């Protein structure tokens, strides 16, 4: 067991060193969430205020947790592209012939990507005052483990795909095809209530929906969000509001299943 933990730690540490050395990666990966938050959020807030809903529906308070979820989604899934890069440059072959189990490599990659995504989400948290959202220690410490759990579940999706990919072009094409529907159907940008039936079904089959809803519900506990947001804009399943515990359970079970599949596929990869 100690040997397994040490192997996982070494792979995780390599991912962290790689992330830390490319500091522009942190800045560039924040660009899209900030643009959504500042431009899209400010524009929609003005539109809602003009329509008379601004008093009860603060769109920035609704959007902010969703943008955090978006940052975690994109960072998590693309973080495991390092597997494809290592395969292309021959480094993965050197690791695979070392006395290290493939399961350790896969788990180390998942934990490295999840830690990276959690850091990205935490940095986004500290941008909250820029959009008029009060930041508290309770909010930060409550969201960190939630973001890490969501990141594990989402990173494992990337591992499942990356374990079968030979080129970065193929990985990016497939992940963009998967991520954009996952993002737009996650409830990050708009409530998932009163959708067309077909869209509602897809949204509730989307694992990112429960990750975003989990982040949003936990954030609402510390943001003094209006009752309108808390009571009416949370995800519903079978006609009932999804609680934080239900979100936790769904994300945790999905993450465990996808991690298992990802590890299994990676062990069978060339």
List descriptors.
270 residues, mainly alpha, two-stranded antiparallel sheet, 2 strands, 76% helix
Description:
This protein is an all-alpha fold and 270 residues long. The protein has one domain (2-40, 57-268). It has twelve helices and two strands, in the order αααααααααααββα. The chain has helices at 2-21, 23-50, 59-79, 81-88, 91-96, 102-125, 137-162, 168-184, 197-205, 207-222, 227-232, 244-268, and strands at residues 236-237, 240-241. The chain has a two-stranded antiparallel sheet. Strand 1 and strand 2 (240-241) form a beta hairpin. Helix 2 runs antiparallel to helix 3, helix 6 (102-125) runs antiparallel to helix 12 and helix 10 (207-222) packs across helix 12. The chain is globular and about 55 Å long. Residues 49-55 have low confidence and may be disordered.
Summarize the structure.
With 270 residues, this protein is an all-alpha fold. Helix content is 76%, strand content 1%.
User: Which outline best applies?
Assistant: globular
Q: Helix/strand/pairing class, anyone?
A: mainly alpha
Give the number of DSSP strands. Answer: 2
Mean pLDDT: 79
Hey, roughly how much beta strand do the residues contain? under 5%
What count of structural domains? 1
Cα Rg: 19 Å
User: What strand line-up does the widest sheet have?
Assistant: 1-2
Q: H/E series, N to C? A: HHHHHHHHHHHEEH
Q: Report the end-to-end length measured between terminal Cα atoms.
A: 25 Å
Largest sheet: 2 strands, antiparallel
Give me the number of helical elements: 12
Low-confidence stretches: 49-55
What share of residues is helical?
over 70%
């Amino acid at each position: 067991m100690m040997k397994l933990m040490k192997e996982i730690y070494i792979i995780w540490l390599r991912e962290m060193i790689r992330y830390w050395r490319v500091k522009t990666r942190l800045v560039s990966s924040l660009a899209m969430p900030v643009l959504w938050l500042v431009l899209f959020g400010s524009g929609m807030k003005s539109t809602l205020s003009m329509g008379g809903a601004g008093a009860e529906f603060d769109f920035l308070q609704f959007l902010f947790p969703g943008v955090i979820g978006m940052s975690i989604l994109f960072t998590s899934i693309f973080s495991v592209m390092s597997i494809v890069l290592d395969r292309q440059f021959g480094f993965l072959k050197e690791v695979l012939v070392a006395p290290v189990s493939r399961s350790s490599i896969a788990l180390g990659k998942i934990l490295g990507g999840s830690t990276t995504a959690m850091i990205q989400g935490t940095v986004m948290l500290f941008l909250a005052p820029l959009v008029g959202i009060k930041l508290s220690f309770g909010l930060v410490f409550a969201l960190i483990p939630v973001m890490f759990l969501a990141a594990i579940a989402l990173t494992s999706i990337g591992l499942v795909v990356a374990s079968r990919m030979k080129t970065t072009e193929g990985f990016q094409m497939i992940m963009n095809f998967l991520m954009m529907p996952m993002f737009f159907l996650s409830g990050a940008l708009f409530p998932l209530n009163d959708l067309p039936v077909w869209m509602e079904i897809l949204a509730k089959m989307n694992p990112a929906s429960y990750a975003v809803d989990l982040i949003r519900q936990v954030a609402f506990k510390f943001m003094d969000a209006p009752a309108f947001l808390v009571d009416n804009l949370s995800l519903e399943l079978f006609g009932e509001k999804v609680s934080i515990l239900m979100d936790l359970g769904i994300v945790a079970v999905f993450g465990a299943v996808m991690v298992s599949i990802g590890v299994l596929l990676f062990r069978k990869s060339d």
